[in-house]
Amino acid sequence: MLSEQQFALIEQSLPLVANVGVGVTEHFYARLFEHNPEVKHYFNLSNQQSGKQPFALFSAIARFAKFLGEPEKLDTLKKQIAQKHVALTIKPEHYPIVGTHLIATLQELFPEDFTKDIEAAWTAAYLAIADLLITEETGLYAQNAAAVGGWDGTRQFQITRIEQESEQVKSFYLAPTNGGPIVGFTPGQYLTVQVQPDDQAYRQMRHYSITGIFDGQYRISVKQDGVVSGFLHKASIGALIDLTPPSGDFTLKTSSNPKVFISAGVGITPMVAMLGHLVEMKSSTPCHFLHACQNEAMHSFKEWLNGVSQKTALVDVIHWYEEQSDYATFTGFMNLHDVTNLPIKDGEFYLCGPIGFMKAIYKQLTALGVSQSQIHYELFGPHSDLAA
Ligand SMILES: NC(=O)C1=CN([C@@H]2O[C@H](COP(=O)(O)OP(=O)(O)OC[C@H]3O[C@@H](n4cnc5c(N)ncnc54)[C@H](O)[C@@H]3O)[C@@H](O)[C@H]2O)C=CC1
């Protein structure tokens, strides 16, 4: 545990870690990858190039350190990060590696501000953070291993069926090569695919929302826009991939409150799982399914949604296309003022899509009087706060 004095030193030096610039994150990752290139298997190297991941790591550490004395405030963040770490097969031995390079970076770049006392306080804080996460992650690994159809680490799967859902999205059905059952998922969760394409020096891992389980096989639906999605889109039936078990805490709540699913582009995928589950359960919960995309050709799961809305009056399906079309309910970006019957007071609102879309919709929802606690969302990639 940190001493009173160490808490004070953390507080004092927090801006140093919370507001690091590109120079600091570049120094840290260059150091980390030079000394421990093996950890490159665990980092999304595309996020490294875009510069998103580096800031996420430093800001998460700063947030943890700030609330170490009030651990109840860290519960949500701890759970979110642990889910991602378990999906990426991060293990206790990785923590000292990151910790060493983090402290060394601060020492090297801020020799005057990062005094010996401050260094000792941050070392103690990092150990405490690692301890919190390792405990949470150990529990999740054990849970995954003990579940019926569950597994620890990775399990090999084979692509058994491929379906084109729209111009750029394909669904892949995945069966375990060792047979046997597969663990279920909570609608909204994702699977993590591990592959090493021929042109890549490191294994790469990406999360993809599960869009359902059919005949004992997972279905994921993937847009072609990166290293792993490119690998999948080129793959044929019979191709082998490794998966870690379903993970993620952006999940459908079990309450009977009306649900409002709001997505854009390939962000439709977790919503398909959530609505699919309610339909399968013959739920009497009223649902609104609001979706935005470029045009009809890009509209994934269009026929399926049509079928669902024709079968039940409980599901209200509305879509916005950027381009003019007879099929669209509305043209342009999604505007929630177009919808008059949203359950503002008691609805649960689920959001998924590109960041610009999420920010715009979050703002619209709060302006309509929806409270923050009613809004659930997930950002693929490094976590950030929509309200910020
Ligand atoms: N479970 C998850 O968290 C998942 C997250 N995603 C995220 O969703 C994103 C999906 O992206 P794409 O399909 O490539 O989307 P996209 O770039 O094709 O855009 C889809 C639609 O979003 C709307 N949009 C885009 N920018 C907007 C803005 N600034 N304001 C208002 N509306 C806007 C437009 O209607 C556009 O047609 C991915 O980048 C990924 O981050 C995707 C799948 C699952």
Automatic annotation (TrEMBL):
EC id: 1.14.12.17
Superkingdom of this protein's organism: Bacteria
Tagged with keyword Chaperone: no
GO biological process, one term: cellular response to nitrosative stress
Cofactor(s) in the UniProt record: [2Fe-2S] cluster; FAD; heme b
Gene3D superfamilies, A to Z: Globins, Nucleotide-binding domain of ferredoxin-NADP reductase (FNR) module, Translation factors
Keyword Flavoprotein: yes
GO molecular function: FAD binding; heme binding; metal ion binding; nitric oxide dioxygenase NAD(P)H activity; oxygen binding; oxygen carrier activity
Residues annotated as domain Globin: 1-138
InterPro entries: Cbr1-like_FAD-bd_dom (IPR008333), FAD-bd_FR_type (IPR017927), FNR_nucleotide-bd (IPR039261), Globin (IPR000971), Globin-like_sf (IPR009050), Globin/Proto (IPR012292), OxRdtase_FAD/NAD-bd (IPR001433), Riboflavin_synthase-like_b-brl (IPR017938)
Domain (FAD-binding FR-type): residue spans on this chain: 152-253
Any Pfam family the entry gives: Globin
Alphabetically ordered keywords of this record: Detoxification, FAD, Flavoprotein, Heme, Iron, Metal-binding, NAD, NADP, Oxidoreductase, Oxygen transport, Plasmid, Transport
Alphabetized SUPFAM superfamilies for the sequence: Ferredoxin reductase-like, C-terminal NADP-linked domain, Globin-like, Riboflavin synthase domain-like
Catalytic activity: 2 nitric oxide + NADH + 2 O2 = 2 nitrate + NAD(+) + H(+); 2 nitric oxide + NADPH + 2 O2 = 2 nitrate + NADP(+) + H(+)
Cited PANTHER family: FLAVOHEMOPROTEIN (PTHR43396:SF3)
NCBIfam families linked to this entry: PRK13289.1
Functional note: Is involved in NO detoxification in an aerobic process, termed nitric oxide dioxygenase (NOD) reaction that utilizes O(2) and NAD(P)H to convert NO to nitrate, which protects the bacterium from various noxious nitrogen compounds. Therefore, plays a central role in the inducible response to nitrosative stress.
Family indicated by similarity: Belongs to the globin family.
Designated name of the protein: nitric oxide dioxygenase
Organism of origin: Pseudoalteromonas xiamenensis
Name of the encoding gene: hmpA
